[in-house]
Model the fold of this input.
Amino acid sequence: MKTIFSRKITALASAILAVGLLSSANAESLRVGMECTYAPFNYKTSDGELAGYDVDVANGVARIIGADIEFVCQEWDGMIPALLANKFDLIIASMSITEKRMKRIDFSGPYRFSTGQMVGPKSMEMNLFDNDGNPIAENFDGLRVGLERATTYSNWFEEVLPGANVLLYDGSEPLYLDLQNGRVDLIMTNPMKAHLKFLSKENGAGFEFKSPVVDEEKYFGIGVGIGMRKGQDALKDRLNAALKELINSGELETYARKIFPFKLHKDEWGQ
Done:
């Protein structure tokens, strides 16, 4: 009798294990593209682990929708082409939702603010904007402006200040290095990143913000969202529901406060 009972327990355990393995095998798998060099939003730690706000968002969304994720590191200017070429399924890389990008790909709702601000040496007097916050084109004459390639910042300069002397970079690290070394006079970048990773550090002590915050929706969009290929409405709905859950539960704010003393989203995005 005991042997029969033991066999039934063993069979039941095997069945449960098989169901668990089958469920795991059938779990949705999503590949997520990001730069992996854009601290503090997505970057590799000294141990080689991915960390940052975007990484937390990706993991939080994946947990809610019940998906396994694989991170794929991709240079910024090839991010959208790689998505369209099916190298990965989603972009979670602090990509602003803009009209220009929406012609090529689709986006979830926003999960972070999107703004730009200019940084330059304290020793250089720059009167770049008028009292209404509009750029004074002639005051950019003679300035070498460093920008990351294929970004909202480069798009803004291309359309708003087409005559500016712009130098394009493939990442933020060489951009900041050339600013420190005097190879460029001014950069436009994410103000949160600039404050945390540069201006508040010893190597940024001789620099300061040289402009007001620039957040024109035409160029910077309504915020940062999750990018995906067009025609994936069901996936988009699930991602939006997951982002709203992260906002309303307070989890998204927790991600931000690991890095900054403030949240990076609007509560109304959770409605």
Summary: The CA atoms of residues 23 and 146 lie 49 Å apart.
